[in-house]
């Protein structure tokens, strides 16, 4: 048995612990079974945003006649070249991550699949390692639904879709959440005829007004088949036939050269040998954790997607920094406070949100007012000739706290940050009102939504 102070399984968010802890003098083993950097770098956030940015530009070019520009309105993305650039970039970064670890005197980087052989012992590549503290940061993988005929066909998940160099003429997307909408947007902007099978709603967890505006704009560029379930998939060597059925029993068959499955994720905890430990799992295979992200076994922590708390790179980063602080840098019994966790869906239109949706406030019986401003009613929105987009803020009636904010339209993910910052400082509507906004920058839409909320409060 080889002894370490710390073992980390997974080099995505796990990297937030490895080097900082080793720099403090702890002896660290970092185990990774695939490319360094995890999902975000290799097949998630980074490559997806690198293909979505050109897709967004296509939309801006297509809208340029509104602002009196004569441009080629059928711009073409050099798809193969773009994918090769993106793949080359992320592969280079990933390859660059290992050497500094290998050079570090207190880190042993091990490429291999880790399994638990006991509560504090790990088997990898025929070696047995032990540590007082083990961090499980194994992430998730795509969940593949049990649809007759699907298995064995060359369907894509995000992993393949972000490395595929041939732009298909047609693509069917099963699942209309984050991944389906983001990658569907990238492909449809590049010229693919994209059809979505939407079982319930597009981006179903968003605020209701955001969903309505999103559907209006998104359906201009993508075909939606709403209220349908997939019954059967067939593949004849070049074309997928997907049979779908709605709740009234009506059947349709869709055909396309490509099929993207984006129906959610499952945690990578099933091949971890957890049966050899006292680590408990929930019904979905996630590892429940306490306020210090500790599993049911003391000294064994679960961070990132696999603990089921949040599924973002920014949240696993936050967890890693928290763990470093409370376990190693300044030990304490502080419990994790995520605060107001923001999110964004990088599509056209772009969506960003933080805090509660209006439906959640109604369910909570909250007393609130809604401040609202459409982009087109601001000076910068007018300059851009915005034909969609708004800012919606939800304010507690009694103490004017910011309960939620939801933005759709250009720069939504950037615009949201001023509200995120205020929510972390327990800011109120007055804070949103009592500052000078650059005229005529887009955040004036946030100010005008705040003024609308102020006016609602006066009426009441
Ligand atoms: C297409 C896509 C786009 C996304 N876009 C965004 C975005 O824009 N913003 C955002 O915040 N989030 C985004 N996400 C989500 C984000 O990628 C994840 O939330 C984040 O990567 C989770 O980090 P993690 O460290 O928990 O897991 P991962 O990054 O998945 O890392 C887990 C690592 O553990 C390794 N591993 C697993 N089991 C073992 C084992 N037994 N032994 C050794 N190694 C093992 C895996 O190989 C992997 O490298 C996106 C995800 C996808 C799929
Ligand atoms: N911008 C970002 O931050 C970003 C981008 C991509 C992914 N992510 C993360 O990755 C996670 C996974 O994304 P995702 O899009 O796979 O999951 P998701 O939960 O966002 O969406 C899954 C969708 O698939 C549908 N679905 C499930 N089973 C189905 C079936 N059998 N037939 C038809 N539809 C079905 C669901 O109704 C839902 O709309 C997200 O939770 C998110 O946190 C984040």
Structure in a nutshell:
Residues 4-308 form the FAD/NAD(P)-binding domain. This is Dihydrolipoyl dehydrogenase. With 460 residues, this protein is α/β, with parallel strands linked by helices.
Could you name the key traits of this structure?
460 residues, Enolase-like, domain 1, seven-stranded mixed β-sheet, binds flavin-adenine dinucleotide, 32% helix, five-stranded antiparallel β-sheet, FAD/NAD(P)-binding domain, globular, single chain
Rg over C-alpha atoms, rounded to the nearest angstrom: 24 Å
Number of strands: 21
Describe the sheet with the most strands.
7 strands, mixed
CATH C-level class of the largest domain is Alpha Beta
Write down the CATH topology of the largest domain: FAD/NAD(P)-binding domain
Uncertain residue segments:
none
Query: What's the CATH H-level homologous superfamily of the largest domain?
Result: FAD/NAD(P)-binding domain
Into which percent range does the helicity of residues fall?
A: 25-40%
In CATH, the architecture of the largest domain is: 3-Layer(bba) Sandwich
Strand content: 15-25%
Mean pLDDT: 97
Which cofactor or ligand species appear?
Answer: flavin-adenine dinucleotide, nicotinamide-adenine-dinucleotide
What is the structural class?
alpha/beta
Pfam family, one: Pyr_redox_dim
Family: Belongs to the class-I pyridine nucleotide-disulfide oxidoreductase family.
Domain Pyridine nucleotide-disulphide oxidoreductase dimerisation: 341-449
Cofactor: FAD
């Amino acid at each position: 048995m080889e002894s370490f102070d710390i073992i980390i399984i997974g080099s995505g968010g796990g990297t937030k612990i490895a080097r900082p802890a080793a720099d403090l003098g702890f002896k660290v083993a970092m185990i990774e079974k695939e490319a360094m950097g995890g999902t975000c770098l290799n097949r998630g956030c980074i490559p997806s945003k690198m293909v979505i940015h050109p897709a967004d530009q296509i939309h801006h070019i297509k809208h340029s006649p509104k602002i009196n520009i004569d441009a080629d309105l059928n711009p073409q993305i050099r798809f193969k070249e773009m994918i090769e650039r993106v793949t080359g970039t992320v592969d280079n970064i990933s390859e660059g991550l290992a050497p500094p670890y290998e050079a570090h005197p207190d880190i042993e980087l091990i490429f291999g699949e880790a399994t638990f052989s006991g509560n504090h012992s790990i088997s990898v590549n025929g070696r047995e390692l032990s540590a007082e503290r083990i961090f499980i940061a194994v992430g998730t993988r795509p969940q593949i639904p049990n649809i007759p005929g699907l298995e064995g066909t060359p369907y894509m998940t995000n992993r393949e879709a972000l490395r595929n160099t041939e732009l298909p003429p047609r693509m069917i997307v099963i699942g209309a959440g984050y991944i389906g909408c983001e990658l569907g947007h990238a492909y449809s902007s590049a010229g693919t005829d994209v059809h979505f099978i939407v079982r319930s709603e597009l981006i179903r967890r968003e605020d209701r007004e955001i969903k309505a505006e999103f559907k209006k704009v998104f359906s201009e560029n993508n075909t939606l088949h709403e209220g349908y379930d997939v019954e059967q998939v067939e593949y004849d060597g070049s074309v997928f036939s997907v049979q779908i059925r709605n709740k009234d029993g009506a059947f349709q068959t869709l055909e396309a050269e490509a099929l993207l499955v984006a129906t959610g994720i499952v945690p990578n905890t099933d091949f971890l040998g957890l049966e050899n430990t006292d680590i408990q799992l929930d019904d979905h295979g996630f590892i429940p954790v306490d306020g210090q992200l500790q599993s049911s076994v003391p000294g064994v922590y679960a961070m990132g997607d696999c603990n089921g708390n949040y599924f973002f790179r920014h949240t696993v980063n936050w967890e890693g920094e928290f763990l470093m602080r409370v376990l190693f840098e300044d030990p304490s019994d502080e419990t994790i406070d995520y605060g107001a966790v923001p999110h964004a869906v990088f599509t056209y239109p772009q969506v960003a949100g933080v805090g509660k949706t209006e439906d959640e406030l109604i369910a909570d019986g909250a007393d609130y007012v809604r401040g609202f401003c459409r982009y087109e009613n601001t000076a910068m929105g007018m300059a851009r000739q915005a034909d969609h987009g708004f800012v919606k803020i939800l304010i507690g009636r009694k103490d004017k706290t910011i309960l939620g904010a939801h933005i759709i339209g250009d720069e939504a993910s950037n615009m949201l940050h001023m509200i995120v910052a205020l929510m972390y400082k327990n800011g109120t509507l007055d804070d949103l009102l009592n500052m000078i906004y650059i005229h005529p920058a887009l955040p004036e839409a946030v100010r005008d939504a705040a003024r609308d909320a102020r006016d609602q409060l006066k009426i009441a």
